[in-house]
Amino acid sequence: MCILIVTHVVAKNDGQGRVNYEIARAALEAGHEVTLLASAADSALAAHPRARFVKIAPSKLPSRLVQYQLFAWRTAVWIAAHRDAFDVIHVNGFITWARAHVNAVHFVHDGWYRCGFYPFRARRGAYHAYQVLYTRLNAWCERWALRRAEAIVPVSAKVAQEVAALGIADARLHVIHNGVDFDEFAPGASERERFGLPRDPFMALFAGDLRMSRKNLDTVLRALRETPPHVHLAVAGILRNSPYPALAQSLGVADRVHFLDLVKDMPALMRSVDAFVFPSRYEPLGLVLLEAMAAALPVVTARTAGGAEMIEAGASRDDPHGTHDPHDAAPTEDAPHTGPAAGIVLDDPDDAAALATALVQLATDRVAARQMGEAARQRAATLGWPRMAERYLALYEEVRTPAPRAARAPHSIAAARP
């Protein structure tokens, strides 16, 4: 096949970029030809003899709203000139004004806007008004893009429900969870001293963007106040401009919260803690949750976080969300479930008391916590990057449109910069 992947970044150190990187790598290994239409791409991947990187230079105009729209327009112009060269065009949400065969959905702006935890209000000032405009415009563009794609790939059952709420038929939905490096995040010896963490306390880990209220560290800190002194929290994320160290101080838990700033060796950190806490107020599917599962950590999360379907009792090793093959249509709720819980799922991400109870439960019953961690790792075994890429390639075969023989030469395409 001749495959075109349209995304902003194709790289191993970027969430959505890693997904596209693994798909492209698997496609090249399978003998397909891949063109990457992006602003940045992994240099080794782009240098592959069957790969082509067509760079869309990032716009220097102000605001992401303008920058993303310009990227969408420029990629659409390029695709219109070269569409016949490709069997499959893969895009990611609303990223181009061009029609695609496969659209992978990593975030649903309409779902974020309507989830009940959206923090912005247009009347609260210019910044809030801009955020509302940005969200609503992207929601409209996403709906437009999804209705024009042949196959839609939500990255979790939660995302599939949000896409279906836009009026997309279930038959067009193919849930494929993102992957995880099962070997890199294998459990092992603790290295707490390396990270400056105390040796004895029960240590939960929170990892994410510390500038976003959506990630919900504030509730975790309030919950920590209701736990015994031997329960501590490690926090991994960029501290610059973060309000949470001051909040921890005001809540009287600063001595039990260990802010580590940006951590590059996340596998080693996860081997050094006892649990992972991820009560995001809105999350399509965080890769860090899958990494924690692979590291055999019991997970405390909330139903508002994509991936929660893999934590509760009932998700089996062969069926990560206990409902269907992730390559098949959208999930159903009445299929039989098997398998132990891989953690604890909260109904309300802002329920600090329930979160505190969950942390105390794990800290008190270490045997049960280890069993949850083992169940988490077993489920992560079904979510490796090769398996994810295999599912995408199988879907490509289903939707491919054979290009005219004379046009099937992506490597003759000039690396134009629209």
From TrEMBL:
Glycosyltransferase subfamily 4-like N-terminal domain boundaries: 14-183
Enzyme superclass (EC): transferase
Keywords of the record: Glycosyltransferase, Transferase
CDD domains membership: GT4_PimA-like
Region described as Disordered: 314-340
Compositional bias (Basic and acidic residues): 315-336
EC number: 2.4.-.-
Pfam families with a match to the protein in the record: Glyco_trans_1_4, Glyco_transf_4
Keyword Glycosyltransferase attached: yes
GO molecular function annotations of the record: glycosyltransferase activity
InterPro entries: Glyco_trans_4-like_N
PANTHER family for the chain: D-INOSITOL 3-PHOSPHATE GLYCOSYLTRANSFERASE, GLYCOSYLTRANSFERASE
Protein name, entry field: Glycosyltransferase family 4 protein
Annotated organism of origin: Paraburkholderia kururiensis
